[in-house]
Amino acid sequence: MSVTIAEELLLLAHSDDQGKSLINAMQLDPALAGALLAELAVHERLELSDKKVTVKDASPTGDAELDAVLTRVAGQARSRSPLWWIQKLQSGGTRRRLLTRLVASGVLTEERGKVLGVFPVTRWPEAHHGVEADVRERVSAVLAGATPDARTAVLIALTHAVHLTRKAFPDADKARVKEIAEGAWAADAVAKSIAAATSAAMTAVLAATVVTAAS
């Protein structure tokens, strides 16, 4: 079953049994936006630096969510930074669409209820563990020393950026996680793009936290 990096991140960010999010929306939504940008870099559609996102190839990837982002970036008259794009793309709507896709593909189920009989809540427990099991196997192998592919490097970098690693992989070696997150696994343009997306996601999380604390 083919899923995007953002969907893999969602699986890691929710508990298997109860479907509760392990991190808050201020952390998760920028990470998902970063995952979409990074995956377009993996597909060689975008190239990211600290200061700008450049379209290398505007042809569709075949995934509706990725192609919607690619179209928006290609249609922007001025070059914008990864942080600018993450702040534009992050939303509860993006998160909801990706979760709904996982439900439609049979990976998750959607359960609605109320807390204290009053406050509505939606949870996303797993229906099929095979997809997340494959993701965890890939990530665990890299954290144990295997050379990462670009997709797995994105996942590790983003989980590190939003403090999900210690919850999803509590026994992970911190030095190894940091090595992957900083792009030390490769020196090509894709690795640099992943590092730029990750840095921007982390900055977006910090900015949202500061705004919330000040309000």
Descriptive report:
With 215 residues, this protein is mainly alpha-helical. The protein has one domain (5-208): yeast vps74-n-term truncation variant fold. It is built from ten helices and four strands; from the N terminus they run ααββαααββααααα. It has a two-stranded antiparallel ribbon. It has a two-stranded antiparallel sheet with strand order 3-4. Strand 3 (111-115) and strand 4 form a beta hairpin. Helix 2 runs antiparallel to helix 7 (150-161), helix 6 crosses helix 7 and helix 7 crosses helix 9 (174-181). It is a peripheral membrane protein. Its main location: Golgi. One of its GO terms (biological process) is Golgi organization. It is found in: Golgi apparatus membrane. Keywords: Golgi apparatus, Lipid-binding, Membrane.
